[in-house]
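Archive transcription. Copying these from loose printouts into the bound notebook so they stop getting lost. Printout 1 of 2:
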Amino acid sequence: MSLSSGDMRRFRNLLQSSDIFGALSEEDRELLIRKATAISFRKGSFIFRQGVKGEAFYFVASGKLYVFVDKRGAQVHIAEVLPGEFIGEMTLYQDWGRWATVTAHEDTVLFMLQKVDIRLVLDRCPAARAALEHLIIRRVENEMYFIGDPAPEPG
């Protein structure tokens, strides 16, 4: 289902104000808006689970998400995702399962895009692609901090 006119306006503003997606041409932002669907999740719902293959990328329109990773059988909370932020970026660059489990911490609306649509516009905008890749590196480092064993103290 395509976005309502209000959701289109909200998603357009979100893209324009994004450090990463604001670098896209207006034509590419409009393409993403046309391809997006709005999905509602109730508090406690799973958006996706660690290990399950992903094909979609999500922008948070409203609500709050919690991100967890499995560490030796225990779920470790590593991040919160708020309106204007996004999840699912790792799936753009790899074809195996999701790196984390994401749940709705409160009622949430997400704008969903298929991986193929995001890749198309990123291929046409090297600046946005580079910024997203830099963010992915930071997120992987953050995840490794939470799931890895802490380094011993020097000395």
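Printout 2 of 2:
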Amino acid sequence: MEHLRTLTIVMTDTRRFTDRVSLMTSADLDTFLREHRSLVVNVLGGMGGHVVKEIGDAYLVTFESSTAALLACVELQRQVAVAGTDFAQDARAEIRIAVAAGDVLVQNGDVFGTPVNTAARVETVTPPGEIYLTEAVYQNVNRNEVATQFVREFSLKGLGEPVRVYRTTFRHQTRAIRDAGVLMTDIAHFSEFAKSASPTTVEDVFDWWERGHREVAGVHGGVVRVVNADAFTITFDEVNRAVEAWLDLYGRSRTFNAVPDCPFAVTFRAGVDSGDIRIFRSALYGRPLDGAAFCCRHAPIDTLAAPTQVMARLGPKTLSSLGSETGTIPASDVSRAQRAGVDSFMILKAR
């Protein structure tokens, strides 16, 4: 039987599932899938969702209410994070969740239509541990119950118009992002420029700098977490993406500076680190944040500083775009470096 219904569509997917499968025995895979199925069905199904289908680790679930859908998704991410504390880092699961809403065709127990296609496309740009939602869901949701934040517009394959995407901000819980790549940037000599330039000129540079970070975060699967004047903190699901984002920013700054009427030649320092971080509301904390901040402080202009141990995590493709030299920790900052977990660091330059 066929009929149209207005539903909220939820799609979930496990981070790097294919890589995990290649490292599992058939018995381990069976256990993982059964436990993951139980978690998804119990949480989403228990909070008003209807599981339409599962494909390996991925699920398509429908809800009558966008608010109920997002509350269920937040609870699922919370339980996945809690469950992960019982496992070694490499064995922990992280999921990405995309949510869309609108009219769908219900046929033989399945659902079809633009909201389904949109959720599938949005899921591809959703970072692990996050919940991304479309404009329709944003308009429907009770914002007193679910906190949201605009991410940006995405041009997604198969969709005729750019899609405005938002994210939940998990207002009432602490959550972990495991093995994250953390990138921090800071424009050099910006305070001196801001003192002498007109407010309009300063605003133009701010707008360009912020737009660049948000676009780069979108392209490389990151999330802008903190903006402090001209300084930004972005997290990524792994450190290679953080380095690639810095290379992208560096290229954009060179293009900006080459414009004939450029109001200010942008040069900047950057630092990167990786590891587990935690988020409560809009607050971030964890050793990698301290490491990235320390490296950013000691990076020469237009370079990226990284703890030496992070270099081992960079892939050949990323390394081929970089030159490197050993950095020096000043004697006055040795104790600060130790607190940040930085024994030594490397200075990376774009080739």
